Amino acid sequence: MRERILVFGGSFDPPHQGHRALVEAAKEKIHPDRTIIIPSYHSPWKNKSWALPEDRFQMAKLAFPGAEISRVEMLAGRLVYTVDVLGRLKKENPDSEIHFVVGSDLALRFKEWKNPPRLRELAHWWTAARPPFQGRIPRFFNVISSAMPEISSTDLRVGFLMGEDRSREVSPAALKRILKRGLYGTTIIPALGKILKAERLTHTISVATLARKLAPIWGIDSFEAALAGLLHDAGRSVPISGMKSYCQKRRLRVPLFREISAYQPILLHAYISEDLSKRMFEIKTPEVLKAIRNHTLGAFNMGDLERLIYVSDACSEDRKYSEAAKLRKLAEKDPSRAFSECLNGKIRHAVSLQGWIHPLPIQLWNSIIL
Questions:
Q1: 224, exposed or middle or buried, with CB in 10 Å at 0-12, 13-18, 19+?
Q2: Which of 44, 118, 127, 108 is nearest to 81 (CA)?
Q3: Which residues fall within 8 angstroms of residue 352, CB to CB, at 6 or more apart?
């Protein structure tokens, strides 16, 4: 009888009980002699990974006890396609029968994989429907009827970031590593709790919560949205009286620094928030940093994430002014209009204070309506 090898690959960012359930269900059908788990170095289906390759490899070892955890993609140190991995595996095991299992989302996109005809030659293909499920799986797939848990790595990462208890969705050993290593921002809210006043922390979490909710509607990565929301006001940990000296000491580039320092020093907190995000929280994603920097004054040619954080800050659930609830509903239906309405509201509020007004919001408003 030919040796049967079950193969399961993925970014495992992080590995969760849905992954485990799929592998176990496949094993019941295939009865493999070997089970090989292959964490990717860089998945062709993902823009980025939020945990380092070695962390994802070690979590996979913890999440799939008894399986072989392959470093084949990790050692390559680059994007590796499944057709190349299976080709190598087949060459090393010419008399073996290879069975490759994937989630239903990737099964639906099989035509987009590199060299589908060759993939079909190299392995038998298996999948199982994970809810919510829509679409038609290619007929050559063996479909496992076992119900799969409704777990998403994307939602799981955001849950960890927001301090939610997601212990039932990952193995205890993998969870221990996540918490010990501070993966997926698990240390951010506790750290903010030490430097921000309680009311400011409540606002911060409220902004992140709204940004997380709006992100899929706006077509934005939920983790990046929540991350920028949590860190947008980190600079408020610095007293207003010390913001000018902080910016000078750190040599931060602040347009109209003299005017802001003299008339509205609190506006400096956005630039400080960006700096703290880099230094204290080791954030390197440019889009997240820009969203933090521009959440108060805005900027020309703002990206979607920047606009999202600007709007989420302006009308988060903790905002009690009369139009906040209306703006939140508008943000779910019309992102562009929600942004312009929030900009309008900020300008009107600045005028009501009868003080110096930074020219950027007014210039930004003119660029929108002209």
A1: buried
A2: 44
A3: none
Homologous superfamily of 4-151:
HUPs (3.40.50.620)
Higher pLDDT, 266 or 134: 266
Domain with CATH 3.40.50.620 in the chain: 4-151
CA angle, 176 then 182 then 185, to 5°: 125
- 39 preceded by a cis bond (ω within 30 of 0): no
Q: In whole angstroms, give the CA distance from residue 150 to residue 119.
A: 27
**Spatial distance between the Cα atoms of 309 and 322, rounded to a whole number of angstroms:** 20
With the CA atoms of 276, 280, 282 and 283 taken in that order, what torsion angle do they form, in degrees rounded to the nearest 10? -30
pLDDT tens per residue, range 56-73: 999 999 999 999 999 999
Written as six digits, the tokens of 123 are 């392995």
Q: What is the CA radius of gyration of the chain?
A: 24
* Residue 302, CA distances (Å) to 74, 78, 306, 357, 363 in order: 36, 31, 6, 20, 13
Which residue from 216, 213, 215, 231 is spatially nearest to 284, judged by alpha carbons?
231
pLDDT digits (tens, 9 = 90+) for 214-237: 999 999 999 999 999 999 999 999
CATH architecture type of domain 187-369: Orthogonal Bundle (1.10)
Residues of the chain with CATH 1.10.3210.10: 187-369
Question: E strands along the chain, which residues?
Answer: 4-10, 34-39, 68-69, 97-103, 124-128, 142-144
Q: Report the distance separating Cα 155 and Cα 212, nearest Å.
A: 10
Residue 125: strand, helix, or coil: strand
What is the pTM for the complete model shown?
0.92
Pairwise CA distance, residues 170 & 153, whole Å? 10
What SS3 class is residue 4?
strand
Q: Are 205 and 234 in contact (CB under 8 A)?
A: no
Burial classification of residue 232, based on how many CB atoms lie within 10 Å of its CB (0-12 exposed, 13-18 middle, 19 or more buried)? buried
